[in-house]
Amino acid sequence: MSAVASNPARQALVRALQATLGPSAVLTESGDLAAYAVDWRGRARGVPLAVVRPASTAEVAATVRLCAQAGAAIVPQGGNSGQCAGAVPSSDASQVVVSLARMNRIRSLDEQNNTLVAEAGCVLANIQEAAAAADRLFALSLGAEGSCQIGGNLSTNAGGTAVLRYGNARDLVLGLEVVLADGSVWDGLRGLRKDNTGYDLKQLFIGAEGTLGIITAAVLKLHPRPKSSATALIAVPNPSAALGLLDRFRAECGDRLTGLELISRNCFDILFKHIPRFTDPLSARYEWYVLAEMSDTLTSVDLRAIMESTLQDALESGLALDAVIAGSQGQAETLWAMRDEIPEANRRETPWVRHDVSVPVSRIPELIERGSQALRARFPDLRIVAFGHLGDGNIHFNASSALPAGAEDVIARQEEIYSIVHALVMTLGGSFSAEHGIGLVKAHEMARYKSPLELELMHRIKRALDPGGLMNPGKVLP
Ligand code: FAD
Ligand code: ZN
Q: Which residues contact 260 (CB under 8 A, 6 or more apart)?
């Protein structure tokens, strides 16, 4: 409270917020603020002026109006599971965190039009469940789905493990409701599949990481719910073979391939060490694995038979070394949980310099090989883990010291490590941020790798929608 107490203007803003939203919706005690002040990795810490927890779009709008009048910056926050510190405020107790957690209602589900209207604070898993209860699928799926919120997913244009089949968050939205930087409310909650009436404004807010406005609700696309699936964990000799396997799956089952993930062995070693409920599903050790899932809305298609014959061919041709096909839904869920818990196990192991990079799918093996060589040439003892969405050309390529005791040294060299990997990614025609966004930690990389014209266009959009520069300043744009 000291920074607030010593600044009458900030004090007045907090009082006005309390008077408008009620005292219980405005947190100011340091104990209450703690969870909102630090990112998932525990590495970026800020000090909020206050955390406001509005329960409705009108309350979000009132909050933004009061902040705009007071010239106070706003940091929207969803489940705070983001990987780039985009939801963390500055450390000078000047910024107001707006948590969307209380806006967690599913407003409606329209079976005929296959749409669902969710408030921004709905936890992703709850939306998936609501869709399933109506025999539909909401196709966004990622490791943080039990805590991340749809507003955060849309604001980071999240990807995840089903992008191969259904696309990323941007592909799953038909309309948005947004509170703009002056507190006005844009009602774009249209559920139309086709609407070519001028610029598609919702696309500006998707992936904007809260720098253009606060998303308060969204019309989401639902898909038919798959009725059958086949999931396998496959040991492969190297990433090139994994790519060969991807081609083989595509040829055998086409669009039924829902996800295809690549995992380096050391990810599993770290997983088994920190989350002992998991054990190795295969009897021998291999250097690389693929987790693949096919699914179909028809039960008449024998996906297990397709999986078996594809893997048989792959084993004979040397693309695969060993494989286990899940024998039940429970086993399939365990294989996916192993994949989903890799980031958490990594977090418990040691700090990492994390890369969330994409290249054309065909160049993933080159990225991993050249990236590892270049890093080890500079830092001979580096540990490197690689896992992620091979089918999308998106790999999480993370580096740390050989010994946990030396980990901090590696974090101190983060910029040097970034520059080695990101420069390679750019030569391979890729992106230095595939699905996690930019936030605070990669804003400077925008200046390095985006063209001046692209950056200027982004700044013009920012100035047009947020002339006062109060929406999540310091994030995304350098
Ligand atoms: P936050 O972290 O709270 O916020 C993220 C950004 O969005 C911030 O800039 C914030 O200001 C802004 N924001 C939040 N809500 C709003 C809103 N309503 N309006 C405007 N701006 C808002 N990501 C992937 O893409 N694919 C993955 O496979 C994946 N796996 C993950 C696994 C784990 C274990 C974890 C911890 C994270 C993973 N992520 C993944 C990161 C991912 O970005 C987030 O999990 C999720 O999309 C962010 O949602 P959130 O509600 O936690 O957002
Ligand atoms: Zn990912």
A: 164, 242, 245, 246, 249, 290, 291, 292, 293, 389, 390, 391
